[in-house]
Structure formats: C-alpha cells, structure tokens
Amino acid sequence: EHLQRVKDEPPLTFPKTLEEFEYTFNEQGQLRHTTTGEAFVFNAREDLHRWNQKRYEALGEIVTQYVYELLEKKCNMTKVILPVDVTEEEPRSFIYLSADAMSNPAKLLVLIQGDGVVRAGQWARRLIINQDLDSGTQIPFITRAKEEGYGVMVLNPNENHLEVERPAKPTPLLSPEASDEPAEKRERKDDRESKKKRDFYEKYRNPQKESETEQIPIRENGSPEEHLLYVWDHFVSNAAARNVFIVAHSYGGLSLVELMCQREAQVKDRVCAVAMTDSVHNIWHQDASKSIQEWLQQHCRNWVSSPEPLDTPVEPMLPDCPRLSAGTERHELTSWRSFNSIFQFFSKALQTGDEYEESSNTVTTRSSHRTKHEHNHDD
What we know:
This protein has 379 residues and is an alpha/beta fold. It is built from 13 helices and 13 strands. A nine-stranded mixed sheet has the order 3-4-6-5-9-10-11-13-12. A two-stranded antiparallel sheet has the order 1-2. A two-stranded antiparallel ribbon has the order 7-8. Strand 12 (313-314) and strand 13 form a beta hairpin. The longest helix is centred in the N-terminal third of the chain and has 25 residues, at 49-73. The protein is globular, with a radius of gyration of 25 Å. Mean pLDDT is 87; it is low at 2-7, 174-179, 204-208 and 361-379. InterPro entries: AB_hydrolase_fold, Arb2, Arb2_dom. Residues 14-310 form the Arb2 domain. It holds the Pfam family Arb2. This is Arb2 domain-containing protein.
C-alpha cells in the first residue's frame, strides 16, 4: 500500500522558471496560466497540503528573481553588494540604488518592507502571485518617485544569512554483540525502525526540508534592524540629498524606530517625513525617548488596516505618530492603498520644511546645520 502511494505521488522537484511552471505575467501584471489563462491555484493536489506549500514556495522564489529583473531592467536600478567590503568567502546581501541615489541633491526615498520571505522590491509575495505586480511590489513607488525627482534606495532587510547544508552525521557501525541483545531492547529498536519508516513516508507525503541546514549570518546585516542601521551608516548618511523620505511597512516601522534609538540626532537632521504602513513598532517596548516620540508625532504618519475610508484618522494606541486608515482591512495591502496619500504627505512635508527654512533667521535648521556624517554615530 505504501509503495502504491509513493508511486502515485507527484515528484518533489519543481520548475525553475515561470515558463516551466506554465505561468506568465500579463499586461495588467497579473500572474496567469499560459494555456488556460487562469489565476494561480494553490491546491493543485487537494490531499497534499505541504506538497502544495512547497510548490508555492518554489514559485515564490521564481517571483523573487523576476522582481529583481524588473528592478534592474524596468526601473534601471543598480544592485549594490553588502557588506561594502565583502570578501570572496563570506555570505553577502545587496540593496538596489537608482543612478542618482547618492548624488541627488534634493530628495531621496528609502523603501523598507516588512519581515518574512519578501525580498528587495516586494511588499507581499501573496499579492504578487494572487493579485498583481502593482499591489505586491514596490515598483509603482519607485516609478512615481523618479517622476517626482527623488533618488531611490530599495532595502533588503530579510536577506540575513546564507543557508548551507549541514554535513550528514556518519552512521555508527553495529556492535558485534548486537545479535545477543535482550529481546526487549530489540523490540524497542524495531519500534524505532518502523517509526523511521513512518517518518519517511510522512516526509514523502508532506515534503518539508529534505536535509538539515545551518545559517551563516551576513556580517552586520544579520537582522532587519542591523541591515537598516548598516545601510543608514554606509549609504543614507553619505547621500547628498537635503531631504530624506522613508516608507516603512509592518516590521520596517519597528526597524526604523530602532534606528532612531541608535542614531536619533542624525535621523532628525536628515529625514523630512516618514510614511509607515501598518507598522508593528512599539515606542514603549522599544524604549523610544520622549524626544523620539515627539519627532514621530510631527514627521510621521502610519496608514493602518481599518474598515474606515482612506485617510480617516484612527484612534492612536500610543502617543507617537498619527494613525490614518489605509482604506483596507488587509495588512499586506496597506502600502498600495495609501500610495497616493503617501506622496501627497511627502509633498506637503517638503513644502512645510522649505517654508520653515526660508522664514528662519537662524542657522540651526535641519538642512543648513547638516554636516557630512563620516563617523559621527550617536551610539
């Protein structure tokens, strides 16, 4: 019976390209089957949930590569390897920069996604696969930002380690006394053997990771918080832009508050406005100072999942940035639904900042007292 079941199982290997998967993105940016024109179906096999999950993950990896390709070819972004002084032997990550990200004298937009499987250029893999590229990727933000004269940096906070296969443990040799062991001990051993067989069939039915792996962290980029700090120190703080703008989704908001705790004076000096989307930050748990809370109230907005119409004020939970409805109750859609509102908010913030600078007679405004932060860290 087991052997028959194994024969009926679909293979555990999955296609490596969209073409092999028989899917393509149509003109509307929707993923569709090349023959039937139908949307992606998760339950390809009703009785094999984990097999379906594996297939979905394999498609997700292809989508990740596809988005990288779009960033490079459609958006003309350049991949920059991290750490900046990486050696050939060590694991590496990367971010994407527009051609003028470091040199644009006026405006820089920094995009930070949430945590999980999403990589550079994505807000939500689920949206890319089940809805479209516009709602699930950061490409509309990049395109609009470039049209409005921003330099752009696309962060990659979840690329934290290299996964390598752990060497298999050598099988111990049977002892010569094995045949003389007591019957009770042999029975226990037989039970273990049959459990191994059951586990094998279970693994075959529900394929998970086939081998043991270990993770080698990427130097100074081993977590989303570390990654943001590293990119701030090596890129944002050395960029020419007088005004930095940040969009931070979900866990990205938490990483941003963490950055403020580490580099408060620098962030206040360089950042004009922050748009969070359903951020999971917590100013109390993260020990954000009173001055950070006040700055967030002034310069930050958080578009949250809510049944209320877009931009409706939502009761704040803590005394930090004002919360507005993103016009959707779906967490992963909050960035896309608040897209226009975010760019309007940035324009107003820039206008207000410029008016403040023009009317100020002092030399202590945000942009005029800025110095090049070479090694001037606030930690």
